[in-house]
Design goal:
The chain is an alpha+beta fold. The chain is about 30% helix and about 25% strand. The protein has helices at about 15-30, 45-60; strands at about 1-10, 30-35, 40, 65-70. A hairpin with a 2-residue loop joins β2 (about 30-35) and β3 (about 40). The chain is globular, with a radius of gyration of 14 Å.
């Protein structure tokens, strides 16, 4: 299924900058960055639950924001892209 993960981490102090790096690193491990703080992740439900808990353990709920949009398995017609940075095949090969 396709999960859209978005976050906004307060980076006014060193702890916030560290949380931002940790959140980004977890998201990179599970999906593709499509904008600065937006990731598309094609994962199953168990992976989603694990990722969600890992991110919730990192963020400070008093100052940070974390959102998950569950687009499901039939997401192909739910995502439209216009403008710079051409879209990619979410289920295709990733080159590291």
């Amino acid at each position: 299924m396709l999960i859209l993960v978005t976050y906004d981490v307060n980076t006014q102090d060193a702890a916030g900058r560290r949380r931002l790096r940790q959140v980004a690193k977890k998201c990179v491990a599970h999906g593709q960055r499509v904008q600065n703080s937006v990731f598309e992740c094609v994962i199953d439900n168990a992976q989603f639950l694990k990722l969600k808990q890992e991110l919730k353990d990192i963020v400070d709920e008093e100052t940070d924001s974390l959102r998950f949009y569950i687009l499901g398995n039939r997401y192909h017609n739910r995502v439209e892209h216009y403008g710079a940075k051409p879209s990619y095949d979410a289920e295709g090969l990733l080159f590291l």
